[in-house]
Amino acid sequence: MGSGHSHGPPAGHAGAKYRGKLAIAFGLIATFFVVELVYGLLADSLALISDAGHMAADVVALGAALAATKIATRKDTTGRRSFGSYRAEVFASGLTVLLMLGVSAYVVIEAISRIGSDPEVSSGPMVVVGGLGLVVNVVVMLLLRAASKESLNVEGAYFEVVADTAGSVGVVAAGILIATTGQAWWDTAVAVAIGAFVAVRAVILGRQVLAVLGQHVPEGMAIDAVADDLAAIPGVTDVHDLHIWVLTSGMNVATAHLVADDTDEFPRILERARTTLKTTYAIEHATLQVERTAARECHEIDW
User: Fold this and answer.
1) Please, what are the domains in the chain?
2) Where does the Cation efflux protein cytoplasmic domain lie (predicted)?
């Protein structure tokens, strides 16, 4: 029976590469949050206050993302975390989902409470502050856009900023509509639209987080195709106990048993299998075992 494993460098996970950009984004958003909250209260604008609340969620999400990239690279000193702390980034994304849903709920509840009232909303500060917020959010979006395609942790922060950018557009639009029509209810309507948009983005991100925590096969990868490619290696007669999951963004993990008759071919089969998983499926950490047909106890690819 032959076995072996292979893996890439621990510091190579996707989130760590973009820590500097996350730090810059955190500084920009945190600074403008204070400005938007103050002017939102002064203008009595629900759209502006809700956007400030969402920006506060951005601050927490970006801060959590930053902390997670640091935690993920720490060495385990307890001897209990055999997979390291890479999942910290996924938990940070989960926190972002909860924050986004919380902001959405607050906006809707506040909008309902305003039904039947006619608040005085200052459109001038809405347009000016909303416009400045739009500029800040676009800059942060450009900083995080590339990283969001590689890291679920950064994607969570990016989704927050995308939603906040839409919020800034809504604030500007509401300010202009109030100024031209004199109808303050535009403020409430835009706030509800912002809340709905944020909720939808939260659900999308939440599904991705749950897929990772549920140890699903990576998106876009078919486990049957992986099994077929491993079974096609010369000398392999069967594949079973094949499991593939995502540890954190950019780090796919696999385990598998390969069945072969010729024990002399075991080392070559192991090497071919590792190469196939790495080059074809970007799985750099694979724990593989080659066994003879007579030694096989399991007959299925999965549990």
Assistant:
1) 13-213 (1.20.1510.10), 217-295 (3.30.70.1350)
2) 219-292
